[in-house]
User: What shape does this take?
Amino acid sequence: MNFAALWLSLRLAAWVSAILLLIGLPLAYWITYSRWRWKFLVESVVALPLVLPPTVLGFYVLVALGPRSPLGRVWQSAFGHGFAFTFTGLVVASVLYSLPFAVQPLAASFSRVDRKLLDASALLGASRPRSFFRVILPLSMPGLVTALVLSFAHTLGEFGVVLMVGGNIPGVTRTISIAIYDDVQALAYTDAGWTALVLLVVSFVVLSFVYAINRRVWTLWPAK
Assistant: This one.
């Protein structure tokens, strides 16, 4: 078991989940309640990582953040190094790759909130932000937890995007999935097997947790 790679993957997943929560909440709210007729284009962009090959996404991230891009030049001049082959680059690429796993559960939960409750909140003089934090968000906690858990688990098992953007630098960009690949390449099947088993168990626990939340089995009384 490569504990350094596991710890790096856990840190990466935690950062990505936190960032996606900050990005996903307003984006999911806009997707749910916006009446803009072309918003399906935004929804398509958000869902694109679900069907786009990870290597394609990783390539475009490298181009967009590379030393020849405006953003890459600004970052290079400010910090003395580029995005590629750094932990920061992994975070940026992983946020883009896991975006739909955060936005879609949140948008689905927001859409299930009864509009009559929002109308009542507006009639009582509550602003939209107040209605969001006092009405929508509390009623959407299952979606919020699902978004966090899925974002964390999906980031933990990433391979193609992190390899394209971060490479394979021990202690810097070598995640747990890349460590498994290295073990297989080195014919260290025992180490690869134990590491893969850990990811298998984590994935099973995550999915079980998500399904339990969606079915509300954690409550003491069944929903009426």
